[in-house]
Specification:
By secondary structure, the chain is mainly beta. It has one helix at residues 2-10, and strands at 15-16, 19-28, 31-43, 51-64, 67-81.
Length: 92
């Protein structure tokens, strides 16, 4: 279900990458808090110049009989260069 959604959403992007770095995990028994930075360069449809964004994720995890599962994920966008909704640069 998620893979199909992502495939549909990203079909219009000429290219994109998603880096997740600096992962910090605070483990407390069967729960964990995870914080990680992200950097996402991409080519938005209709934009001549690439776009870039970055920030961090805060993820609450819980251990179940079937392994670790997500309880909550929050994305904190900290910066965006050439964002969607900005007047697109002319396509060359």
């Amino acid at each position: 279900m998620i893979a199909a959604f992502l495939e549909k959403v990203f079909t219009g992007f000429p290219w994109t990458q998603h880096y997740i770095t600096n992962v910090e995990i605070d483990l407390d028994g069967d729960t964990a808090s995870v914080r990680a930075s992200f950097y996402n360069p991409m080519q938005l449809p209709g934009f001549a110049e690439p776009s870039f964004c970055g920030g961090h994720y805060e993820h609450a995890m819980v251990r179940t009989a079937n392994g670790w599962k997500s309880r909550r994920l929050v994305e904190h966008d900290r910066w965006f260069l050439n964002p969607p909704g900005a007047p697109p640069s002319s396509v060359a």
